[in-house]
């Protein structure tokens, strides 16, 4: 390795995982201007150390970063806002905690409506089937909307449907489907709750807009 023209900004000493089959590991790594400029033995990379070089001894290993290419930053910002309660498995792993959070939010919000995100029966074992009867039992007179952890569907009660103007006769928007709760005159309520695929929530505004509903649900 030839001597560098100038010293590196940062040098790591430790186990370096290179993901290079010809040299799977190394002892040191040098970074300059945000780029890796040297990987090799401690002696080789030591040539890059100058007066202003930050040197770190790594108790572990250094490896290439993992890029998460399926993120939804806007959706996450909305879901983690103050208007929607976070009930994802990473936050509330136990079913009892989820149910308690739902009841607490319904009691807190009253007529403004309760909105929660992260329902996941596959990971939160013991959650009940979110039928219309169950949702209406939790919130008989006020809107309740629970977004699935996948973000691809949401469950809502009869009060939320009334607030949004949804009935059995409401046509499904293109590319989406809704199992609408019955009207007041219906004699055969569906077994499933109101459910909408790929919903979008805007909780930071007084009006909670859902693209898949014909009107806004007022928050």
From TrEMBL:
Its EC number is 3.5.1.91. One of its GO terms (molecular function) is hydrolase activity, acting on carbon-nitrogen (but not peptide) bonds. InterPro entries: Amidohydro_3, Metal-dep_hydrolase_composite, Rhodanese-like_dom_sf. Residues 178-189 have a biased composition (Low complexity). Keywords: Hydrolase. The keyword Hydrolase applies. Residues 162-202 are annotated as: Disordered. Pfam families: Amidohydro_3. This is Amidohydrolase. It comes from Mycolicibacterium fortuitum.
